[in-house]
Specification:
By secondary structure, this protein is α/β, with parallel strands linked by helices. The chain is built from twelve helices and ten strands. The protein has helices at 84-94, 116-119, 126-142, 155-164, 185-196, 204-215, 230-234, 237-247, 251-256, 276-284, 311-315, 323-333, and strands spanning 16-20, 31-40, 43-51, 58-63, 97-102, 112-113, 148-153, 174-178, 262-267, 290-295. Strands 1, 2, 3, 4, 5, 6, 7, 8, 9 and 10 form a ten-stranded mixed beta sheet that branches. A hairpin with a 2-residue loop joins strand 2 and strand 3 (43-51). The radius of gyration is 19 Å and the shape is globular.
């Protein structure tokens, strides 16, 4: 997503139970929600479970994207409140699915470091798959329903692919990629930078900085004063390690290893991960069971954007996320083998 580089700045018992009104149907039976946590590599991570009114017809693990997001999909350090994950959980709950959504570790998200030495492992992208596996275990314990779906948003789509080919792969019936990138992280960031720059802008400093970062070498002397690379140059070693380890993972190759059915969801007005990425992911699947659901009028957070809105204004929209996305996920999930 736009300002993607900020992802790197961060490094089971029930807690509460609440009743919430369904998101889009005032006459429907209320949903139940319960807060919980998982602890992975020295960090306690906030989770929230949503249960339908009746027996669950399936279960969905919802993995967050980049940046510091709370369980609802809001970004406290940026004062952005798209609440996509809360919307999806409620909308899927209305359709009979139990949903576990997770915070992305970082300030303001409800995560808490309990062992600083162990928490250093979160500088490696592979630890995100461990966090997802802990969430999957919590969901299976709390809502043992079939089919069991893993859905990842943005960077979380790559985590979903990794989880679906890991040790618990047999438990996962299908995978949903929500606005997932097809390019490695630093290449996606270059694409975003080019889209924000005037036509023909010189990206040489960015390319030199990325080459040094990928090689584990000191960044160029001019990186700190160039607007293209100043944020990268200001990051601590922990954050640069995270960027480097994330960039080593090829989303297309990772998705090609997934043997379960896959649903790729893409908004046509996504300025953070443009629609061409969904096409590349789809093509990379070859003959493996895959569906591509396009929503031409929707943004990265599945909002309907007014005409002429800027990418940053798009990120700031706080309207209800379009329920057609949840409906498409639910109808696809019901066709999966149990």
């Amino acid at each position: 997503m736009r300002m993607f580089q900020q992802i790197a700045m961060a490094a089971v018992g029930a807690l509460t139970l609440s009743i919430i009104a369904p998101a889009g149907n005032a006459g429907a039976a209320p949903l139940r929600e319960r807060d919980d946590t998982v602890t992975v590599a020295g960090v306690e991570i906030a989770c929230r479970l949503t249960f339908p009114a009746g027996a669950p017809q399936g279960a969905v693990l919802l993995l967050p994207g980049s940046l510091f997001s709370d369980v609802d999909g809001n970004y406290p350090t940026m004062n952005l409140k798209p609440h996509l994950y809360a919307d999806l959980a409620a909308q899927l709950g209305e359709r009979g699915f139990a949903v576990l959504r997770m915070a992305k570790i970082g300030p303001g998200t409800g995560s808490r470091t309990v062992d600083p030495q162990a928490a250093a492992r979160h500088a490696q992208f592979a630890t995100r798959a461990e966090v997802a596996a802990a969430g999957l275990a919590l969901l299976r314990k709390s809502a043992p329903a079939r089919p069991l779906i893993v859905a990842g948003h943005s960077e979380g789509a790559l985590v979903a692919s990794m989880l679906a080919s890991a040790a618990d792969a047999q438990a996962i019936a299908g995978v949903v990629l929500l606005s997932g990138p097809a390019a490695p992280l630093l290449s996606l960031m270059r694409e975003q930078l080019a889209a924000m720059s005037p036509p023909g802008a010189d990206l040489a400093m960015y390319d030199q900085t990325v080459a040094a970062l990928r090689a584990g070498q000191p960044l160029p002397a001019g990186a700190g004063t160039n607007p293209q690379t100043a944020m990268l140059a200001a990051m601590p070693a922990f954050s640069l390690d995270y960027l480097r380890s994330t960039d080593r993972v090829d989303p297309v190759a990772e998705l090609a290893r997934v043997r379960q059915p896959v649903l790729i969801v893409q908004g046509g007005q996504d300025a953070s991960v443009p629609p061409a990425h969904a096409d590349r992911l789809h093509q990379g699947r070859g003959k493996l069971p895959t569906e591509l659901a396009r929503f031409p009028g929707l943004t990265h957070f599945y909002k309907v954007a007014p005409p002429g809105i800027s990418p940053m204004q798009s990120m700031a929209l706080d309207s209800v996320s379009e329920p057609a996305v949840a409906q498409r996920i639910a109808s696809w999930a019901r066709r999966l083998p149990m």
